[in-house]
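User: Predict Transcriptional regulator, PaaX family's structure from this.
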Amino acid sequence: MAAVAKRADASAAEALAGQSFQPQELVMTLLGSYVRSRHETVWSGGLVALLEEMGFSTGASRVALTRLVRRDLIARERSGRLIHYRITERADQVLAEGDRRIFSLGRADTLAGGWTMLWHDIPEAQRLERGRLARRLRFLGFGTLQDGLWISPHDREQEVVPLLEELGVAERAGVLVGDVAAMPGTAALVRRAWDLDALCERYRAFAVQFAPHARRRGAPRVDDREAFLVRTRIVHLFRGFPFLDPDLPDELMPDPRARRRAVDVFDAAYERLAEPAQRHFDAVTSGWQ
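Assistant:
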């Protein structure tokens, strides 16, 4: 049994291996985790230093910040010779929606409000809008059955109708909300739209890697810097799950225990490491000014 458990742990760990982080995405994680609730600006040099701690060069870090400014996700503010950044209204909305997804994911055992089906025939001339729609639908937990046909196991009308209008493609799309009949074929339909086996493997990998930091007793002793690095990685990896998990009820998941375990580990480690991680973030982003 011990050998089987070790093989399972190794397999789970491999599911997380090789995942590359992008500096722009990490900056958004940092802002959402350590800045947004305070409504403060943050020193650019401190952000660069933190990204360097996570393995990025100074050049790559500054390019990432510049691109986030161009995307209207952060705004520059000059104070003497120093540059600070603040979260824009657009970024605040993006981060708020992200928080709603990650802090509700896997917490409901039953479906509520019916399923949503969205179809579109957006032409090639609007491939930019089509790509943006696809990314937003994946973040909302939609899966695709075929080109232009998406489904979600939740009522997403309030999210997708304004999104279609914002992208200017409402006339090329339709939305239907309703119940799905309780039939044996439902499970097969779900597996066509989402790779649930791979999802559960990633959940197991997450729990294996970070379970030690979630323990009430016997957790590894870490200093503030280590707490920051571990907590940031935890949040950043967990933020990826809403793109993969439609938040199905347990009866439609191949291994519902994998998600429950990952959620429990996330909640416990996120809270346990919060104070020392915030201390390190504050020390780096304010101590050198």
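Confidence is low (pLDDT under 50) at residues 1-18.
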